[in-house]
Structures are given as structure tokens and as C-alpha cells.
Amino acid sequence: LICHSLLEQRFLDMEARHSQELQASQQEKEQLQELLDRQSRLVTLLEGQLASSTRNSTLLQRQQAALSDTVQQLLALCISCVLPEITSSSKEKVMIFRDCADIYRYGITENGIYSIHLTNSTQTIKVFCDMKTRGGGWTVLQHRFDGSVEFHRSWED
To answer: Which residues form a coiled coil (predicted)?
Structure first.
């Protein structure tokens, strides 16, 4: 009887501990589920914000491209106002080019000094254009202090 009572007491103790552990596990499961739900809501919120940011970025890129086009058009208009078409004695129009490649595409294939119009500016400058090397149309930039150095130099110089 004592043995039976002792076994019964142990069984009841084990059952109580098991019940407590089960309850603790259930609470932990509920807490983890709440955490998972919160994280899922945050992920959904962040996905929405990312989609919104992506749309805004795309819109800004389109607006920037449109603005850049508008600026280029306005500069072209300014150039035509500030730098009217110059006519020579033979009444041929003098073209305004952006670089030596433009000049080459226009059909001029001789090396020489030409006037080009700087992008985003109303200024024109004279540059040397190499129209013979590797397909032509190269803008050659060189800074000389007093002009005593020969322009045409080898790579060894």
C-alpha cells in the first residue's frame, strides 16, 4: 500500500510537472506566434514601402530625363538666340558642332582647327580635330603655355 501510494504520488507529481511544462510550451508557442505575426505585418509594410519607393524612384528618373531634355532644348534655343547663324560672303551657313565627331559626321574629313560649342554652355571654343586616326572625329586637347612646344609630338616626348 505504501509502495502504491508512493508510486501514485510520483505519478501525480510527474503529471503536474508535465502539465506545467505543457502550459509553458503553449505560452511560448503563443508568444512565438505573436512575434511571427508581428514580423509578417512588418514585412508586408516594408514591401509596400519598397514598392512605393520604387515607383517614386522611377517617376523621379522619368521627370529627370524629361527635365534634361527640356534643358537641352532650351540651350539649343539660347544658342540660336545668342549665336545667330553666321553667313560667309558666299552666303553659306556656318554650322555649330558639339565635338569633332559631329564635324566628321557632317562630312568634313580634313585635320584642322574647328569651332565647337560646349555642352550646357553658350560658349564656343576652337579645338584641333584629328579626322584621320582610327576612323576620325577625335577632339584633341592640349594646353600650351607659350606655344613654343610643337603640337605634333610622338609618345616618347
So the answer is: 15-49
